[in-house]
Amino acid sequence: MKKPKKSIILTVSLGTAIMLAACGNGDDETDPEMDMDTGSEDSMDDMEDDDTGDMDMEDHGMNDMDMDDDMHEGHDMSSSGEVPEDLEEAESPTFEVGSQALITDAHMPEMEDVEATIVGAYDTTVYTVSYTPTTGGDRVEDHEWVVHEELEDVGEEPLEPGEEATLNASHMEGMEGATAEIDSAEETTVYMIDFTSTDGEEVENHKWVTESELSPVE
To answer: May I ask which residue range the UniProt record assigns to the signal sequence (predicted)?
Structure first.
């Protein structure tokens, strides 16, 4: 009678071992699938992150272009050629009137690397200014350029950055009569020029370019 009891116990033990082994194999088979699913989700997240990064860079580039367009919107590149009465002609400019020069450091994209004819050269203090147009709209920041003689009632002494003055210039719509803050000031020679822009526009008597924006034509 003792031997059958041992057989029953052995049979139960084997059955238990087989069930445990089966459960173990089931877990092993399930885990890789879970890992694969998790990996796929992580990969999708990474791809979405990469796409978002690309879009951010593209948007940033477009915003920069929009800012450039807004900055120069309403800019009248040509002028009548009239200059303030008290603006002194340069006695010995680097680029003489009638000579050619290359615009190598342009303050507007359509002026970059084009050849210009010098039609006027003047010694003065030149400023970059920020102002709110009298016609409304967004504030214009760091406009290039305004000469000292285009500021109203400021005397002969150059202004310092941070000072304010009323503009008596019409380079851009809404500029004349606006209150401007001086952003930078430099004593130099400024030039009035004729040129053909990169988009084919014939520009006459453009005011102003500074000496540092020009290079000799080779």
So the answer is: 1-21
DSSP letter, residue 160: P
Identify the bridge partners of residue 123 per DSSP, sorted by sequence position: 88, 189
For the range 91-99, what are the long-range contacts, defined as Cβ-Cβ under 8 Å and sequence gap of 24 or more?
Answer: 91/123, 93/118, 93/121, 93/189, 93/191, 93/211, 94/189, 94/211, 94/214, 95/121, 95/191, 95/211, 95/214, 95/216, 96/121, 97/121
Q: What is the CATH number of the domain that holds 129?
A: 2.30.30.1210
| Per-residue pLDDT tens over the stretch 111-157 | 999 999 999 999 999 999 999 999 999 999 999 999 999 999 999 99
Say if 193 falls within a structural domain: yes
Boundaries of domain holding 114: 88-216
Phi and psi torsions of 68, nearest 5°? -60, -45
SS3 content of the chain, % helix, strand, coil (to 5): 35, 30, 30
- CA separation for the pair 150, 99 (Å, rounded): 25
Closest CA to 107 of 135, 68, 133: 68
pLDDT tens per residue, range 183-205: 999 999 999 999 999 999 999 99
